[in-house]
Each structure stands twice: as C-alpha cells, then as structure tokens.
Write a structure and sequence with these properties.
This protein is an all-alpha fold. The chain has one domain. The two termini are 49 Å apart.
C-alpha cells in the first residue's frame, strides 16, 4: 500500500471491506427524508435485478438452442456430403448426367442453406423477443410503481 498525500484513498486498505455483508437497505433505512421510501426503492431495484437475470437466462437459453441447431445442421450436412459424393461417383461415366446431377444438387444445397439460415434467424429472433418481453414487462411495472410513489 502506497501513501499519496494528494489521494487519501491510497491510504485505505480496501481488502478489509466485505461487500457481501453490505446491506443497502440498512444504510437507506437510516436516512430520514420526508416522502422517501427507502424500502420501496430497494424492492424495486431487487425486482430490476431479477428481471435482468431472467432476461439473461432467456438469452443464454436461446443461444444454446441456436448452437444446438447449428450442430445438428452441420451433422446433417456432413451426412449429405457423403451421400452426394457416392451419387456423383456412380455417374462419372456420363459427363452430361454428371453435370445435370451437380446442378440439381447445387440447387438443393442452396435451398437447404436458405431454409437453415431462416430457421436459425427465427430462433435468434424468438430468443431476443423473449428476453425483451421480460425487460419490457419490468419497465412497465417500474413505471407503475413510480407512478404510485408520486401519487403518495
């Protein structure tokens, strides 16, 4: 610990402070300001934190669903590539037939890629919508709580 005459905080040993034992409701409870409801503010902040936690959980679950679906798509694609390679190897004798099959497989592959991209986009959108709905609900509740405090 260094001492700095220009910064008094360098002389404080912050390792002695245990933030887990800090209770803001006790500190605010000692504040006596007319019309200031410390308990209501602490309760509102707890609800805000709970809503953020729930929104984060919804977002994580959405990301997990997207990652799982991506893994399934990759597995399916690898299986199809193997099947396509076998099909193309069987038709190597006729160049025109090979070209037709390649064009058809390319078209099917493109359509499948678009369908997979659409599905993943819908999963992400649903995840975002779910998380936003949680936050939006809490904001609405918070505004109602604030309105109730102002009326008092």
């Amino acid at each position: 610990m260094s001492t700095n005459p220009f910064n008094p905080f360098t002389n404080v040993d912050f390792s002695k402070f245990d933030i887990s034992k800090f209770d803001i409701s006790k500190v605010l409870g000692d504040v006596k300001i007319p019309g200031f409801d410390a308990e209501a503010i602490v309760a509102a902040q707890r609800k805000n934190i709970e809503a953020l936690t729930a929104a984060n959980q919804a977002a994580v679950q959405g990301l997990q669903a997207v990652a799982q679906r991506q893994a399934e798509i990759l597995s399916q694609a690898l299986s199809e590539v193997s099947s396509i390679a076998q099909q193309l190897a069987g038709s190597a004798s006729n160049p025109q037939e090979l070209t037709t099959k390649q064009a058809e497989l390319a078209r099917k592959g493109f359509e499948q890629a678009l369908a997979n991209a659409r599905e993943l986009a819908e999963l992400v959108s649903k995840s975002n919508t779910d998380a936003f709905a949680i936050i939006n609900k809490r904001v609405t509740e918070s505004l109602q709580e604030l309105k109730g405090l102002v009326v008092k």
